[in-house]
Amino acid sequence: MNAKKVFLSILLASTFFISACVYIVLPEGVEVTSRYGEGENLGWTGLVTNVGEAEAGVLHVDITIRNDTGDWSTMRAVEGKPAVLETDDGTTDCDTVMVGTGGHRLAPGFQMRGYVIKEGDQIVTQLLYVECAGATAAAGGTITIDTIRFDGEYDKFVEVEETNKVEATLELNLDEVATDLTYPVASPVEGLILPADSPVIGLSDNVITLLDAQRSAEGFVFTWQNTNPTQFALKTHIGFPPVIGEDGIIYGVYVTWDLPDVPLTSAGGSATWTTEVAVPEDVGGLYILLGVESNKPKTYVFYVLDITDK
């Protein structure tokens, strides 16, 4: 077979393969970014909101965490490693460490004090705190928490290998108790928060749009639309988008964005579907934390949609 025939065979095989795929990957060098600003990456900041006793002889410290990385980020305390309380009397291991974003990526400049988890058939709120048995609050006391975080877009294949993991420490000053925090926006970032009906570009130039956000007895029902301008039927995953509001809690149990199924959008067509999230009726000032499959399959870029008027 001559070189020309070999080239044609490869071209035909490639064309067939691309046509059969569910996804079309954007050309190299074409990307969507969720990075905001050019400021210094200060990591995550921990704020003490209350110091007390959980029970006799057990120091309890309530915590708010703020994303100062300049990008979307998820963070958690290192599993199985105690926090360390340091006072003039020495150091104490704090074995109960409930600190992190619950798997969610939080927007830059946002802060939170808890998230929801599923326990059996119940959805419960997990507040952020540290407890130190055999310790009491003392002037000048500090708590150090070892953490890991992942910044920017979510690439499932990269994150499973943890090659983008950042190790850091969270420092808490027990003498500085914050009592006047507002949630969820701590430091506004220009261009970050989008109107609720803003079209968002996803994989292969598909367009995701929130058509409607309705309060229900349990929380919210969101109606989504995907518009597909390509010549092939496609799916654009968004998972179950969570929300965060004026109480600083992320509502919506975390699952990776590729797990919930979405309808197949026909070539040149559109498809609609709904997602739901449980939110207490009295919680307002809400924003959707939306992850949209972009750039390549199983890679997600993040956006904030403003539903504070709902």
Task: Identify the notable features of this structure and list them briefly.
2 helices, mainly beta, single chain, eight-stranded mixed sheet, 2 domains, five-stranded antiparallel sheet, disordered N terminus, about 10% helix, about 300 residues, 22 strands, Immunoglobulin-like
Helix share, percent:
under 10%
Computed Rg: 23 Å
Question: What is the helix/strand order?
Answer: HEEEEEEEEEEEEHEEEEEEEEEE
Largest sheet: 8 strands, mixed
- Total strand segments: 22
Average residue-wise pLDDT: 88
Number of domains: 2
Question: How far apart are the termini?
Answer: 66 Å
Topology:
Blueprint: H1 3-20, E1 44-55, E2 58-67, E3 73-77, E4 83-87, E5 90-94, E6 96-98, E7 111-112, E8 114-119, E9 122-127, E10 129-133, E11 142-151, E12 154-155, H2 156-161, E13 166-173, E14 193-195, E15 200-201, E16 207-215, E17 219-227, E18 243-244, E19 249-251, E20 270-278, E21 287-293, E22 299-306
Parallel strand pairs: 8-19, 14-22
Antiparallel strand pairs: 1-2, 2-7, 2-10, 3-11, 4-5, 4-11, 6-10, 8-9, 11-13, 12-22, 15-16, 16-17, 17-20, 18-19, 18-21, 21-22
